[in-house]
Amino acid sequence: MHVLTTLFAVTGYARRLPQLLVAALLSVALAACTPTPDLVAGTPHEYTLGPGDKVQLAVYGQAELSGQFTLDASASVSLPKAGVVQLGGKTLREAEQLIAQRLTVELKSPEVSLNIIEYRPVYVMGEVQRPGQFPFVPGMTVLNAVALASGYKERADPARITIVRASDPDRVARKANEATSLEPGDTVNVLQRWF
């Protein structure tokens, strides 16, 4: 009798084995797919300065104070007569006002003009032919960045792209597509196809 009970139990289990196996595989696959938030296509905002930006400073009537400067890792620049000025997170107009304010110690009503010569680069990683950093150009999209990286590798999935915004303090990878606009300092990651 015990043998018959065991046989029925094993046979019942054997009939359910394919269903249990499929359920187990699905649960593993779903667990591996951690949800990635979508990149919200917000309204364009005014550009703020950050590390690696190269700027042209012009102080009217003061050629010795004018020149080209690159923001260091802390997004600061060392300027003649103004000292070290922290420009990170400031718009060009805010940066002009701050520099003018710092120069009022030496000059009366300085007129300051600041322009970006070169933006900080974007980074392209993952399933591209030539991962690395590339110069940012206003209006750049994910597809432009992939083209600079010499295109997709064979196993790339153009439908599985994430971006980490340089402006995001949490550095969250968000879903994107080839038409997503980039900002200076962004990191694009092209993921691999499942099959």
In short:
This protein has about 200 residues and is an alpha+beta fold.
Radius of gyration: 27 Å
Strand order of the largest sheet: 7-6-10-8-9
CATH C-level of the largest domain:
Alpha Beta
How large is the count of helical segments?
Answer: 3
Number of domains: 3
SSE order, one letter for each helix or strand: HEEEEHEEEHEEE
- State the share of residues found in helices, binned by percent: 25-40%
* CATH architecture assignment of the largest domain: Roll
Q: Which runs of at least 5 residues are low in confidence (pLDDT < 50)?
A: 3-8, 20-32
By CATH, the topology of the largest domain is: Outer membrane lipoprotein wza fold like
The shape is elongated
Descriptive notes:
The protein has 195 residues and is α+β, with helices and mostly antiparallel strands. It has helices at 2-32, 92-103, 142-148; strands spanning 54-59, 67-70, 76-79, 83-86, 112-118, 122-126, 132-134, 156-164, 173-176, 187-192. It folds into three domains: 1-33; 54-118, wza like domain (wza like fold, 2-Layer Sandwich); 122-192, Outer membrane lipoprotein wza domain like (Outer membrane lipoprotein wza fold like), CATH 3.10.560. It has three helices and ten strands. It has a five-stranded mixed β-sheet, covered by helices on one side. It is elongated. The protein starts with a helix and ends with a strand. Residues 3-8 and 20-32 have low confidence and may be disordered.
